[in-house]
Design brief:
This protein is mostly helical and about 450 residues long. It contains 23 helices and no strands. It has a domain of about 300 residues.
Length: about 450
């Protein structure tokens, strides 16, 4: 009989090779898992009998694909994606930035701070880091460049702020993690609140210290803010605050599930958009079309990953790896450090969803063997993926901002500014690892 561990390790090597030559993650996972499963079933009797492998292979592939696509939890992905697109076209997400800008513009570096706050508000509606960076980058970075902000600050603050979409609920990454680990997505959402706010506050501190050390990097605002402008700007931001309150308050209070919260907020966003005459029928149709395309891509990746997970279970490579690490008697601290290094390295080259679906089949049995809380571990993983979005040489958010600003700012300049925010991210990561209560406090009190 063929050694399943060797087949499993060869499969992981094949996937990494395919990804290196730019094969889409879904095709890489599904094709390797299908071929690997066929080989395993064909050698089940000790001799190669391909005719006996066809039926069990096709059964495994199609049943796992079907089960994933018909997952109830996965239905919240298109709902939250739609919420983000509809809220953007209704100008709900940008009102947070507008309000923050009016309130903070007189503070040195205030517009950069408002950009980070705006990213946090956008993240609280959309749940997508790259969408957040792309949208807020078009609004914030050009404005700061026109005002004379340091090019590094004007771009890196938005690139870093965009990563908040990974932690601040709702988060697509939390949804995928919850599905594959069979943990409560509602609790994962709640677990991301404090880490997300901690990161946001840290970014504001970074901007404050940057501008204090180099006042020329953020010119002082010399314009006039009319009386009552702050109050009006704050009042205009009420739809975004209300939607976030419905999501978090409803989940925390046990009033409804995360999926129900998403459905309610999508309906509310459509009504608000039409009532405020910011959303048109054409805009709604465009939002739904973009939602369908984005959701389909996520569904195909998730379904392919589900097939790959079944294949990994068939090979037994996960349990073999766990036994090897247990025999090595690694301490929990060393294990966490090794996992962090792995994710940081992968984050330099792969997108967050790809990293997650590729590694979770091995990571989850391993950390369960060490008795780690999967809610807390999920927050740590998402934070690592968040860091990967701005880590050179392939920080996706950095390149998104680079595409927005064009030739005005080079990629090297953006990465030069990112260093300060990365340092803060590593501090937050260490705090999350050292003090799990930061992640588990709110979900532990959930009704």
């Amino acid at each position: 009989m063929m050694d399943g561990t060797l087949v499993g390790l060869a499969a992981f090597g094949a996937v990494i090779l395919l990804l290196a030559i730019r094969v889409p993650i879904a095709f890489a996972l599904a094709s390797v898992a299908t071929i690997g499963s066929f080989v395993m079933f064909a050698f089940r009797t000790g001799t190669f009998t391909p005719e006996r492998a066809i039926k069990p292979t096709t059964s495994m592939v199609f049943s796992n694909f079907f089960d994933l696509i018909h997952s109830y939890d996965l239905s919240m992905v298109p709902l939250f994606v739609a919420l983000g697109h509809i809220a953007y076209r209704s100008e709900i997400t940008t009102r947070i930035y507008d309000a923050a800008r009016v309130w903070l513009v007189r503070i040195p570096g205030g517009v950069a701070m408002a950009s980070v706050v705006g990213c946090g508000g956008f993240s609280a509606i959309t749940g997508s880091s790259i969408a957040c960076a792309s949208t807020m980058g078009r609004i914030c970075s050009p404005e700061m460049l026109r005002m004379g902000y340091d090019k590094r600050l004007a771009t890196s603050s938005v690139a870093a702020g965009g990563t908040l979409g990974s932690l601040i609920p709702p988060s697509v990454l939390f949804i995928i993690y919850g599905i594959f680990t069979e943990t409560s997505i509602s609790k994962l959402f709640l677990a991301g609140i404090l880490p997300g706010l901690l990161t946001l506050a840290g970014f504001l501190v970074v901007i404050y210290l940057w501008v204090r050390k180099d006042p020329a990097s953020a010119p002082t605002f010399t314009g006039e803010i009319r009386r009552g402008a702050k109050r009006r700007a704050a009042l205009k931001a009420w739809p975004a605050i209300a939607l976030f309150a419905v999501i978090i308050g409803g989940i925390y209070g046990g009033i409804f599930t995360a999926t129900e919260a998403a459905a309610i907020c999508v309906s509310a966003a459509v009504v608000i958009g039409f009532l405020q005459k910011k959303l048109t029928w054409d805009g709604l149709l465009r939002s739904l079309r973009e939602t369908a395309l984005q959701s389909a891509a996520i569904f195909v990746i998730a379904a392919s990953a589900k097939i790959f997970v079944a294949f990994v279970a068939l090979t037994g490579v996960a349990s073999a790896l766990g036994e090897s690490i247990t025999a090595a008697q690694l301490s929990p601290v060393v294990l966490l450090a090794a996992i962090a290094v792995l994710y940081l390295v992968l984050g330099m080259f792969l997108d967050p969803i790809g990293i997650m679906v590729l590694t979770l089949p091995l990571m989850i049995p391993l950390v369960e063997g060490y008795g780690f809380d999967l809610i807390w571990f999920g927050v740590v993983i998402i934070k690592l993926l968040e860091i990967g979005l701005i880590t050179p040489p392939v920080g996706l958010n950095v390149f998104v901002i680079g595409n927005v600003v064009g030739k005005q700012v080079s990629i090297d300049q953006i990465f030069a500014g990112i260093v300060r925010f990365l340092a803060l991210d590593f501090v937050v990561l260490l705090l999350l690892m050292a003090f799990p209560i930061i992640s588990t406090l709110i979900p532990s009190t959930m009704q």
